[in-house]
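Minimal example, chain plus pyridoxal-5'-phosphate.
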Amino acid sequence: MSGKELRFNSKVIHGGQKPDKAYGAVMPPIYQTSTYAQTSPGEHMGYEYSRSANPTRSALENSLASIENGNFGLAFASGLAAMDAVIKLLGPGDEVISTNDLYGGSYRLFRQIFEKYGIKFHFIGMQEVSKIAALINSNTKLIWVETPTNPMMNVIDLKAVSELAKSNKLLMAVDNTFATPYLQQPLDLGADIVMHSATKYLGGHSDVVVGALVVNDEVLAEKLYFIQNASGAVCGPMDSFLVLRGIKTLHVRMQRHCENGKHIAEYLLAHPKIEKVYWPGFKDHPNHEVATKQMKAYGGMISFVPKGSSFKDSIAIVEKLKVFTLAESLGGVESLAGHPASMTHASIPKKQREKSGVVDSLIRLSVGIEDVQDLISDLEQAIA
Ligand SMILES: *Cc1c(COP(=O)(O)O)cnc(C)c1O
């Protein structure tokens, strides 16, 4: 089933899937093999070596393409490996315009790996499209967007950015990790490439590290497939199976993440000891209108700043949490809390970090799918 004819809640289960050829297994077997028997040199059943392709990975790649409304999916060993493949489309002298408030590891990959190879990166707030336009020159090749941004929850207008990208013949890639295709589908809004850290919501159970790309254009897909195979950072069969299993409940989990997220964002906003809450569902969030236009709901990621708190106070709060686990990562069924300045965003220089709002006292929550009252009681005791 290609899944194109199905609605999203069915695609997550059936999109791109068919029972296994050998015995009709409904879930694809974990083809834990590196190689495949050939009857004569070059004559095989579609698979010859598992870096190039593996049936379990193919099943995941078909599912990824289906849920993002794309034609081609590629699964990588991690989200960063997927990004790495996108930047390898470029060469020395090329320039990339990227969101300024983005995942710390993405920033590190751009600045500390690819700058060495002569690729130049600009970092800019993308809420005003004119700011992006001002940076475009004849060397610009790619616009890299992450929305909602991490950890400030800014929302970038994907349609407006894609119109700018198209009119300047630039590629546009969107890191859709936070929103997932349940909330927004960037290819439908004009993006060329969707990227995921499937480690997060797609996998959904904090048990695997996987990355993904989805594209519509066949030539672009071939170039990315060439890089995937030539560089070799592929997703293994067991990990492919786990993400595929996770995707089947994405819609149900996301619905609850969003409901719990709304409760907690509103609880924090009303709390006398909380200074600021960043969540795109608030009517006075600066990008609320864009969020409402391009997203189905507002997600379960929330950042907040306790009143008058310092680096130490915020650390004390996250240490006191009992139901929320203090950990890197996000998007699993369990609630996590993080302290971006010392954890996920420690690789971004303090000055650069504070310019985009990632102050020392900022706390980030990935709201899970537990009973929301337990989550609120936990926050209550930690903040008190
Ligand atoms: C985690 C994350 C990444 C990196 O993905 P890995 O799977 O950890 O390599 C990239 N972008 C965002 C938004 C993330 O949250």
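The mean pLDDT is 96. Residues 78-80, 103, 105-106, 146, 150, 175, 177-178, 197, 199-200, 209, 211 surround pyridoxal-5'-phosphate (CB under 6 Å).
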